[in-house]
Every structure is written in C-alpha cells, then in structure tokens.
Amino acid sequence: GSREDVDAAVAAAHAAQPAWGTMAVAERTAVLNRALDTIAAHADELAAIEALEMGKPISIGVPFINVGIAAMRETAEEALTYQFRSRLKVDGSGVTDVVRRPVGVVAVIVPWNFPLAQTLVSIAAALAAGNTVVLKPSEKSSLSAVRFVELLGLPAGVVNLVLGDRRAGTPLTEHPLVGLVHFTGSIAAGRAVGASAGGMLRRVILELGGKDP
Fold first, then answer.
1. What is the pLDDT of residue 180?
2. Whose CA is closest to 103, among 2, 5, 200?
3. Residue 168 to residue 5: CA distance in whole angstroms
4. What backbone phi and psi angles, to 5 degrees, belong to 175?
5. 60-118: per-residue pLDDT in tens?
6. Neighbouring residues of 113: CB distance < 8 A, sequence distance ≥ 6
7. Dist CA 195 CA 157 (whole Å)
8. Average pLDDT of the chain?
9. DSSP code per residue over 90-140
10. What is the DSSP letter of 157?
C-alpha cells in the first residue's frame, strides 16, 4: 500500500460516512448483525487463513473469532440505548444539551497476533456509532483481513482496507480527513502515532505493549 492507496481508502470512507452516520441506529445495528452472521458462518475458513499466515492453530483461532463476533454484537446492541443526545439542564439561562455525533473516519491499525479478533473489537464501537473505518492489518498477517472485508458485505465505503507496512500506516494516521486513530501495537510505533495525533489535535486510542519475539 502507498500514500495514494490511503488517499483513495480515506476518500471512500469520508464519502460514505454521512449516509452511514445518519442511518437510524436500529437499522445500522441490523446491518451490522447481518454482516456478523456471515462472518460467523465462515469462522472456520477465516481461522484456517490465520493459521496459514501467522500460525495460530484453528482450534484456538475459531474461539477467538467467535469472541470477537460476540463483542461486536454486544457493542451494536449497546448503541440502541446509548444517549447520543442528552439534556443536562433547563433553567432561566436556557437549555443545555449534549449531542454526541460520529467523528467521521476512523483509522484502525491492528497487530499480527490476533488479526480478526482484534479487528472485530476495534471496529465495533466505531461502526455502531456511525463512523466509517479504514482498516490496516499488520503486514505480517494481512490475508485474513482481505477475506474478512470481502465477506462483510457492508455498504460501499463503510469499511475500507489498505495493506502494507509503515509506508501505508504513516500516511493513514496523518491523513487530514481521519478523525480518530485506533492503534494496537508496539510502544515505539504508538509514540509516533500519539505525537502525530497531538500535533493535529486528533483523537487517538492506543493499546501498546506486546511480546513479539
């Protein structure tokens, strides 16, 4: 993947976000659950791909994929009762409301060790809340992500995929149309993502550490 590929993926996500974000929450949840039905039906196939690309035994891979599916379903259900709009007070000075809107395009970068389980957990709240996603899996385990995105069947542009190493990751985390970066990986890479996000006053979620030998 290159900067041009990132530009195309982010542009697709940015174009798709208004329609996805204004869709009724119940309808959006239903769409996500239908997509997860498909992923669940292909869990064996997806776990087999993970076994080929990074060595996780299928007997372990399938349960982890199922855990990710369950977590995403739970998050989608939570969106049905989430207070996207709440009233704090009404007094002589007026009405104070809090309105929570999607941030727009969310960049999601996941590590090599739990490719699909981590992807499902990382995109769950973003999609349920009405954001669109650009996903970049680890360059060490990208095959399962390709099949995963093929199977999702979401509206065009809602989930987009870029492949590659930091030559794709850096332009994605620094892209001006990305509203939030969700990164799971090494401390060194996390520092770079955090520094870039801070300079642009961009929201960032970092899960750092790991035992990659």
1. 97
2. 200
3. 8
4. -65, 135
5. 999 999 999 999 999 999 999 999 999 999 999 999 999 999 999 999 999 999 999 99
6. 54, 56, 141, 210, 212
7. 28
8. 95
9. EETTEEEEEE----SEEEEE--SSSHHHHHHHHHHHHHHTT-EEEEE--TT
10. T
Going by C-beta distance under 8 Å and a sequence separation of 6 or more, which residues neighbour residue 126? Answer: 106, 108, 133, 180, 182
pLDDT of residue 211: 63
Kind of pairing between the strands at 178-185 and 203-208:
parallel
- 3-state SS, residue 158: coil
173 vs 192: CA distance, rounded Å:
9
Nearest in space to 79 (alpha carbons), one of 125, 32, 121: 125
Cα 97 from Cα 83, distance rounded (Å): 11
Determine the 3-state secondary structure of 156 from DSSP.
Answer: coil
In DSSP notation, 32-101 reads: HHHHHHHHHHTHHHHHHHHHHHH---HHHHHHHHHHHHHHHHHHHHHHHH--SEEEEEEETTEEEEEE--
With tokens 């990074």, the residue in question is 54
**CA trace torsion 76, 185, 4, 50 (10° rounding):** -70
Q: Do the Cβ atoms of 39 and 46 come closer than 8 Å?
A: yes
* Number of residues that make up the chain: 213
